[in-house]
Amino acid sequence: MTVKLSVSSSNRHKGKTLDLDPAREVITLLGIGGEPLGSLSWDFIIDQILAHRKTQGMKDARSEPRVSLAVRVKYSTPEGRQFEGRAGGIGGGGLFIESEAPLPVGTKLAMEFSLPERSSDWLVAKGVVAWVCPKADQYTFSPGMGVRFTEVSNDTRARILELVRSLQAVGQPT
Predict the structure, then answer these.
(1) Chain centre to alpha carbon of residue 118
(2) Cβ contacts of residue 151 below 8 Å, gap of 6+?
(3) How many CB atoms lie under 10 A from the CB of residue 83?
(4) How far is CA 171 from CA 57, 69, 88, 159, in A?
(5) What is the pLDDT of residue 174?
(6) What Rg, from alpha-carbon coordinates, does the chain have?
(7) N or C: which end of the chain has fewer CB within 10 A?
(8) Is this model's pTM higher than 0.70 or not?
(9) Cβ count within 10 A of residue 87
(10) DSSP string spanning 94-149?
(11) pLDDT tens digits, one per residue of 69-98
């Protein structure tokens, strides 16, 4: 059973609804017409609140640096559904996979992706969909899903962070 909470005191979001699903531990924002605008896992929300507390006053609440960068990615679900696409951003904590049909929050993924400096090398990681953006908005230019790494080798993380640092050094926005 879900719990629906109407947004009534926020001028910018009045009329929208928060739909809490305790069984799946997901919160979904519904538009004025009841259409889903996006979902977040409770883990992601809790992580963001705790990160915000730790980094209050800092520009970015993420614990790992990231950059906007097109990265080829292949991913599959535990049920064997396979996908291929593009990640629009990557960092030490995960990546944003562009998708017209993002998978639900909480979906576990096995991933392979290549970084531009050695595009023939496929790096592997596991992750979980932490949040979805079903359509482009002011924060994401493409619909898709934020995937938080749950298993990534130290070597792969080091290569990602090296790339992120090098791009930040030449002025790539985070």
Answers:
(1) 24
(2) 125, 126, 127
(3) 15
(4) 22, 13, 17, 19
(5) 47
(6) 17
(7) N
(8) no
(9) 23
(10) EEEEE-SSPPPTT-EEEEEEEETTEEEEEEEEEEEEEEEESS--SS-SS-EEEEEE
(11) 888 999 999 999 999 999 888 888 899 999
